[in-house]
Write a structure and sequence with these properties.
Blueprint (H helix, E strand, L loop, with lengths): L17 H17 L9 E3 L2 E3 L6 E6 H8 L5 H10 L3 E5 L2 E6 L9 H12 L19 H15 L3 E2 L5 E2 L1 H6 L21 E2 L4 H9 L8 E12 L7 E12 L5 H14 L4 E5 L5 E11 L2 E9 L1 H7 L5 E7 H11 L1
Parallel strand pairs: 6-9
Antiparallel strand pairs: 1-2, 3-5, 4-5, 7-8, 9-10, 10-14, 11-12, 12-13, 13-14
């Protein structure tokens, strides 16, 4: 136990990384030395050879032009040296650059940019006059976001209520409970919770999840969501493709495909686009009551009546119809038609 009468202290650091152990030991030792203690080094001998803590400062070089570029103030080499010395660095003029001796306890200094930060502090942050950079272009809302807001307003006008789900979900929600074929899915390597283990590849499952948790509310229930989905695509720069989608769902005792068709028909026509329904099949929906939506000859989504088994999986007691459209496709076609 360390008391006021303790004269000698052996500092032992254990780590799985040798460099990390050296840095921690150096910080502890120099902190004690700063308070008037004397550092006595111990040589450690092991199968890897003998080792002792190195307390010599590291050498770095700082270009004065980097200081001006990052801080926006022009300082002479001598002024930079003086600022660094105020911050307890060793510094000497070396032509147009500065030779800096970084104390062993300054393990936070990894790059010349870190030295520039210390120059700023040594110069005095209060002495740096802020300058407002003039805008390089007129600020405006992204056109896709404007388009999405218009879609939301239209859907709300049809009597729907918007819901907002997380992009993170689980494969159970996306595929197991819906019976849908699994797509290349972006998964979390070490998820904290199994219900947030991957990114969603379509919106429909989460609308069914919302409906399953809202069975106590009055019917009919008319909900929608406008949000992003993502899936693995090796052709993309980051191997992930993202797409904005719009999904609409109606749950009621007498709801049919006609009800959701009316919503899609009104929406597409209000956008000034033409569409047609193409017969298709999907395991999440009843056979013969599912269709692909083609807008201006481009596949832009689907609509259908949810299969009874999927309703049972979600504990839903009333029929559900769903439509899911690609906002990205609609936006591109709408922009082209303007």
């Amino acid at each position: 136990r360390v008391t006021e009468s303790t004269k000698d202290v052996l500092i032992d650091v254990t780590a799985i990384d040798k460099k990390a152990a050296e840095e921690v030991l150096a910080v502890i030792a120099t902190s004690l030395a700063e308070r008037g203690e004397r550092i006595g080094l111990v040589e450690v001998r092991s199968t890897g050879g003998a080792w002792a803590l190195n307390l010599e400062p590291r050498r770095m070089r700082l270009d004065v032009e980097l200081v001006e570029r990052l801080l926006g103030i022009r300082l002479a080499v001598e002024e930079v040296v003086e600022c660094l010395r105020r911050m307890r660095f060793g510094a000497e003029v070396l032509g147009s650059r500065v030779e800096v001796l970084v104390p062993v306890y300054r393990i936070d200094v990894l790059h010349p940019v870190d030295l520039v930060e210390d120059v700023a502090i040594g110069y005095g942050l209060e002495n740096i006059e802020p300058e407002f950079m003039p805008p390089q272009h007129a600020g405006r809302e992204d056109r896709l976001e404007v388009f999405c807001r218009r879609l939301r307003e239209l859907i709300v006008g049809f009597g729907f209520q918007e819901v907002a789900n997380y992009m993170l979900t689980s494969k159970e929600v996306l595929y197991d409970l819906t019976g849908a074929p699994e797509l290349p899915t972006v998964e979390v390597l070490n998820p904290r919770q199994p219900q947030f283990s991957c990114l969603r590849t379509w919106l429909t499952p989460q609308l069914l999840q919302v409906l399953s948790k809202s069975k106590h509310a009055d019917y009919p229930q008319r909900i929608f969501e406008c949000g992003d989905v993502a899936w693995v695509d090796e052709g993309e720069e980051n191997c992930v493709r993202e797409e904005r989608r719009l999904a609409v769902a109606i749950c009621d005792s007498k709801v049919t495909l006609t009800d959701i068709h009316a919503v899609v028909d009104s929406l597409v026509r209000l956008l000034g686009l033409r569409y047609k329904l193409v017969k298709g099949e999907h395991p999440t929906f009843i056979k013969g009551r599912y269709a692909v939506v083609e807008v201006e000859g481009v596949s832009a989504g689907f609509m259908g009546e949810v299969h009874p088994q999927v309703l049972v999986n979600w504990g839903l007691e009333r029929p559900v119809v769903v439509a899911e459209l690609s906002v990205s496709v609609l936006f591109r076609l709408h922009t082209r038609s303007e």
